[in-house]
């Protein structure tokens, strides 16, 4: 197997453990938030469009990879650009949600819920941001004509990271938002 | 076989460190050999610092009711001693040896990610410096190397030290994880043709599985550090009991890292012993499969026993029993290796080189530490001895009598390869005997102190019968040990200048690192020998008696 892909996969397995720990803390405290706000302050309806955007970006990056493998560079850049837009839309949505919560005084200091919620979603958002930076760099390189089908393996390696970020959101979305409905 | 010379004449030498260009080369290198040596020098420096912290503690404890140090100073010292030894000495020193040796042992040109390798070293360095900056930044961390909450949290803290602790270790930890990733990918993808995984030298095998343990255990540490930092710096409530949080969460989080960590700190040392004992017994390892297979078992099981650090924390009987059973079980694959090493040396033609002496001492001392360790798996026994000097004795026997002695065996074994000169054997024996006598004097009596009820992490103690004498003996031992370590430094400095020139295979060993010059050229090998078994160089020298696997 290509060394970069193997390295990325092992790294992602390691990061999964990190996110699992943060999710476990959130889940553990779910039955007893203590004083302060509870998960009733989150609104799944508000977050749904941004969630769908992020998950769709996994599809668009896959189209982009296929285009690259077939040497269709224009299409590749198009799908990559769309991926970046969808990812940025997700971050925009997170920011909106955060600001709304801050205005209700729900922040990282607001009880155990505040701490665990913002840590978990914050680290996820941080990983999305890093991924977006890397994807944007790829778009710039593609626009200068550097990214060709010979680099398909490296591009695929980066897409593994992006899929991972999506997968983590599946976990976070379930444990935080879906669970808040019950 | 062929008369093409596999090993060319000795021409390579290490870049000089006392000219500017040489120094610049060291600072900017991405060569795994130089990075390995940088790790060794950096970690040896921290070893001396951590050692001085220990000596200061031992002076304070030499007599009852002593006032050499204040309680606050003492707390900072034991926290920094533990933190330094675990995070800035043992782990990175083992990874440094792996960095140097593994690519050579598998016949590779360098690691999979040379620049990441360099980054890892500098992250380790700066993380360590950040941790030590705490001394001048308001006070060193003082809540113990495992930082139990609530003591390590914001309200109970007397200085910003624990924040330095959290961030310093986070930074340094990035280096550790990156090195582990590098080693795993290198071992899986860069082996010489013919070197199947079943033919890996045991040091490399141990490093491979160690790498996996690191990749899955360090994130647990990172989660712990991050949540502690959020509580301390951002006013979070992960461990805020008044807000309804559970302090037990920290213990579960930390020990989920902390237990695999102790295996991280020993696996490569087992690998060193598995290289050294066969070579100096002139016999291949007895039961390669058992040694290799038991390592895999330990790698998995190590994630299932963390609760044995929490038998006094009130997890409930069911949890206690499960963790007890798993802990007793994990002693089995560990013990298997002892039998393998002894059987290897049995009836062998033993060469009592300094390296072998350290390896033999390892076998005895690690067994003692292992025996006391498995006792803690018995819950009622643990309830009496936890947090006493019995624990301190146990872990120093496995970590110092075990891993550190293993590291010294490795230094004496691979020094000729790295520097092109042999370490002096007379100074080496002096080094060994001083360390052996010093170590056992310092720590054996601590078993007794633990039995007598002396708790750990206390800055002084009452004048109970026997406590003063044993503590004084322990202190004297620690100074003998320190003097022994000093002899090692003397040996290194002497031998670098005046040591006997080493050939490419001074020990007549069998693995690939001995098939190139001492020191190797930057590119490692002119020609990698054919690999058709676990001992390629034996096969080359004895084609009629070649190994079958």
How is the topology of this model organized?
The complex is a heterodimer of chains A (182) and B (549).
Chain A lengths: L2 H27 L14 H26 L3 H31 L7 H33 L8 H27 L4
Chain B lengths: L19 H9 L3 H30 L9 H35 L8 H20 L27 H29 L12 H33 L12 H18 L2 H15 L6 H14 L15 H29 L8 H22 L3 H7 L3 H31 L5 H27 L15 H32 L37 H6 L8
Helix pairs in contact in B: 2-3, 2-4, 2-15, 3-4, 3-5, 3-13, 4-5, 5-6, 6-7, 6-8, 6-9, 8-10, 8-11, 8-13, 9-10, 10-11, 11-13, 11-14, 13-14, 14-15
Describe the structure.
The complex is a heterodimer of chains A (182) and B (549). Chain A is mainly alpha-helical and 182 residues long. In chain A, 79% of the residues lie in helices and 0% in strands. Chain A has helices spanning 3-29, 44-69, 73-103, 111-143, 152-178. The longest helix of chain A has 33 residues, at 111-143. Chain A is elongated. The termini of chain A are far apart. The model of chain A has no long low-confidence stretch (mean pLDDT 95). Chain B contains 16 helices and no strands. Chain B starts with 19 loop residues before the first helix and ends in an 8-residue tail after the last helix.
């Amino acid at each position: 197997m290509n060394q970069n892909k193997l390295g990325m996969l092992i790294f992602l397995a390691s990061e999964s453990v990190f996110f699992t720990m943060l999710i476990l803390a959130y889940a553990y405290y779910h039955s007893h938030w203590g004083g302060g706000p509870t998960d009733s302050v989150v609104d799944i309806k508000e977050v749904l469009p941004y969630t769908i955007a992020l998950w769709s970006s996994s599809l668009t990056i896959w189209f982009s990879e296929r285009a690259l493998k077939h040497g269709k560079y224009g299409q590749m850049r198009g799908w990559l650009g769309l991926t970046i837009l969808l990812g940025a839309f997700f971050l925009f949505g997170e920011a909106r949600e955060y600001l709304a919560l801050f205005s209700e005084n729900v922040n990282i200091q607001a009880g155990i819920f505040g701490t665990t919620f913002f840590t978990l979603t914050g680290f996820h958002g941080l990983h999305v941001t890093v991924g977006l930076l890397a994807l944007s760099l790829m778009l710039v390189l593609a626009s200068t004509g550097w990214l060709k089908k010979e680099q398909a393996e490296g591009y695929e390696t980066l897409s593994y990271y992006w899929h991972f970020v999506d997968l983590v959101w599946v976990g976070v979305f379930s444990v935080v938002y879906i669970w808040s409905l019950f | 076989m062929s008369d093409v010379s596999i090993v060319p004449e000795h021409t390579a030498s290490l870049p000089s460190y006392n000219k500017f260009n040489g120094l610049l080369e060291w600072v900017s290198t991405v060569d795994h050999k130089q990075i390995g040596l940088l790790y060794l020098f950096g970690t040896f420096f921290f070893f001396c610092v951590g050692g001085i912290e220990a000596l200061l503690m031992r002076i304070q404890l030499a007599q009852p009711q002593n006032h050499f140090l204040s309680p606050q100073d003492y707390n900072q010292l034991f926290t920094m001693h533990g933190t330094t030894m675990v995070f800035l000495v043992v782990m990175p020193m083992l990874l440094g040896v792996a960095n140097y040796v593994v690519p050579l042992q598998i016949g590779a040109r360098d690691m999979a990610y040379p620049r990441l390798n360099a980054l890892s070293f500098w992250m380790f360095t700066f993380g360590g410096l950040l941790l030590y900056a705490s001394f001048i930044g308001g006070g060193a961390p003082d809540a113990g190397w495992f930082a139990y909450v609530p003591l390590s949290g914001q309200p109970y803290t007397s200085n910003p030290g624990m924040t330095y602790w959290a961030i310093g270790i986070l930074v340094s930890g990035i280096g550790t994880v990156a090195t582990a990733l590098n080693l795993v990918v290198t071992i899986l993808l860069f082996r010489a043709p013919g070197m199947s995984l079943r033919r890996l030298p045991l040091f490399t095998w141990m490093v491979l599985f160690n790498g996996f343990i690191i990749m899955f255990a360090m994130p647990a540490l990172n989660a712990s550090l991050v949540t502690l930092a959020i509580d301390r710096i951002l006013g979070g409530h992960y461990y805020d009991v008044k807000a309804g949080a559970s302090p037990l969460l920290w213990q579960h989080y930390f020990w989920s890292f902390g237990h695999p960590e102790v295996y991280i700190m020993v696996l490569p040392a087992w690998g060193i012993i598995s290289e050294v004992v066969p070579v100096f017994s002139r016999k291949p390892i007895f039961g390669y499969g058992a040694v290799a297979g038991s390592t895999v078992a330990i790698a998995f099981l190590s994630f299932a026993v963390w609760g044995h650090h929490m038998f006094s924390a009130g997890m409930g009987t069911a949890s206690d029993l499960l963790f007890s059973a798993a802990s007793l079980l994990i002693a089995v694959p560990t013990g298997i290796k002892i039998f393998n090493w002894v059987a290897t040396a049995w009836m062998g033609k033993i060469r009592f080189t300094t390296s072998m002496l350290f390896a033999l001492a390892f076998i005895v001392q690690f067994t003692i530490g292992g025996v006391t360790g498995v006792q803690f798996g018995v819950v009622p026994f643990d309830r009496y001895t936890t947090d006493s000097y019995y624990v301190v004795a146990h872990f120093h026997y496995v970590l110092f009598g075990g891993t550190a002695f293993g590291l010294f065996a490795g230094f004496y074994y691979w020094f000729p390869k790295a520097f092109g000169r042999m370490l002096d054997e007379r100074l080496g024996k002096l080094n060994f005997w001083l360390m052996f006598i010093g170590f056992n004097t310092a720590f054996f009596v601590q078993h007794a102190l633990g039995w007598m009820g002396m708790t750990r992490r206390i800055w002084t103690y009452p004048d109970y019968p026997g406590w003063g004498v044993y503590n004084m003996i322990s202190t004297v031992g620690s100074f003998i040990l320190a003097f022994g370590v000093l002899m090692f430094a003397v040996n290194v400095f002497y031998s670098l200048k005046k040591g006997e020139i080493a050939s490419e295979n001074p020990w007549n060993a069998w693995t690939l690192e001995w098939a190139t010059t001492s020191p190797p050229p930057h590119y490692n090998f002119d020609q990698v020998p054919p690999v058709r078994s676990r001992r390629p160089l034996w096969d080359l020298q004895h084609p009629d008696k070649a190994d079958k696997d």
